[in-house]
Amino acid sequence: MRYFNTEGICRPEEHYMVRLDERLEEIKRLYVDRGKYFVINRGRQYGKTTTLSALEAYLREDYHVFFLDFQMLSTADFMDEKTFTAAFIGQMGKFLSRRKTLREGMDAEAVEQLLSLKENNGLSLNDFFEGLSRLCETAAKPIVLMIDEVDSASNNQVFIDFLAQLRGYYLHRQDMPIFRAVILAGVYDIKNLKLKIRPDQDHQYNSPWNIAASFDVDMDFSAEQIAEMLQEYEADHQTGMDILAVAEEIYQYTSGYPYLVSLVCKTMDETLQAKEYLCGRYWWTKEGITKAVNRIMKIRMPLFDSMAKQLDAYPDMRGMLEDIIYQGKRIPFSPDTKSISMGVMFGFLKDQGGQVVVANRIFEMRMLNMFVAEESVNSSAFRYGENNKPQFVSETGLHMELVLEKFVEYFTDIYGDNDEKFVEAYGRKFFLLYLKPIINGTGNYYLEAQTRDASRTDVIVDYLGERYVVELKIWRGDEYNRRGEKQLAEYLDYYRLDKGYLLSFNFNKKKETGVKEIQMDGKVIVEAIV
What we know:
Elements: H1 21-32, E1 37-41, H2 48-59, E2 64-69, H3 81-98, H4 100-104, H5 108-116, H6 125-138, E3 143-148, H7 157-171, E4 181-186, H8 190-197, H9 223-237, H10 243-254, H11 258-275, H12 286-298, H13 302-313, H14 315-327, H15 338-345, E5 349-352, E6 355-358, H16 361-376, H17 380-392, H18 400-415, H19 420-439, E7 443-447, E8 456-463, E9 466-474, H20 478-494, E10 499-505, E11 514-520, E12 523-529
Parallel strand pairs: 1-4, 2-3, 3-4, 9-10, 10-12
Antiparallel strand pairs: 5-6, 7-8, 8-9, 11-12
């Protein structure tokens, strides 16, 4: 029986997975057949190794393929030129021993000459590349080299020297035969590997890999591709799920990040469906997805550990993310801005309509939880929400009107005398800090990316199967406020809700603070004014 896999390479005969045929055909047609050298650099657990493994099998009919993994090399293997070259040849020899048909398609003398170089005490990169050139010249098919986990070579000058030699052969390949295509995969692109070796300004962006083609194949999964995977699961399990609706909801949380798609499905299949039932039904519903995401938010895993590590290592990137999440700050997308390019490389950020946005909802929820947890230690707003939690929650749901009412009292008492600039910068952050301990352990919240800007943020709260939409708005006058009420009513239609909540940070000196209920287009809106 197949299952959803989140550990290592996915294989269609063993796992439920999105089919990669179209992606493989595109890589072959646009890059390999055209003799391109390129880098697949994507965030952690983005399906790079699975793609390379499938590509190696896909290319065998037309090419000889060496698929190496730098994780198999130790730190000592990068000590010097001779050691690295011998280790590289050793990896090629091991791969040839596993692929009998690959070895049979190559000139036996050229293979033996290359492998025997490992025993040469004076072995150099020049010797190695002369042997590679003879191998490529005499092979029955063009040779493709794929190297996974090139991050393992970071901070090693000998690997940069290897790339420089490869570049030289590539530029003169009419006279010196070499690989038809070279594919390197890892989180860091080669420019950043060079940056780590030579941090001075003169060499910051001087890389021997400037021959590499830009790799533009989309590795995210679409909602349609997720649905095709779920159809295979449904054929085996007959859950009665609405496949298109479930696929779309998974996509809304993950934006098609391959690992997160598999993780959500795996959680529903193995954790929720196997151990719990929702009113006697299977978990393959929107409610089940919410439950699965709530569980994922509480689990420590390498992907999120890496996120925390990178946010600590790059404080400018972290500050930008806090501005986006807390304040709805709109930042123009520029790949030349270091904090943005690093965020894209790690998979945390993406370009959406020319603006920098967090790559997916699960990442944003995890970052928000991380930021809130760190700030909660010294936050009076967090402690106030935590101390008053019993009056806000019950076995049936959340008393959101009272949550807003008490926040108005708290904010007015503590921060009512602060100026407009202070409230714009911190008002929404304080509400999120206040709300977190109230729903913690039972519910979760996220910020709706589509509606967030400097003046407006919609917080979606999921609690005991109920959904609450709370719009946080900076007051910009009566007419603007009426438009906001109408926008919220329209947004409630989208979520099929009859009731919504509006928290306005109002700087009008004649304002009346408190909570009131209004009707708008058939919807009930509970409006709280601070």
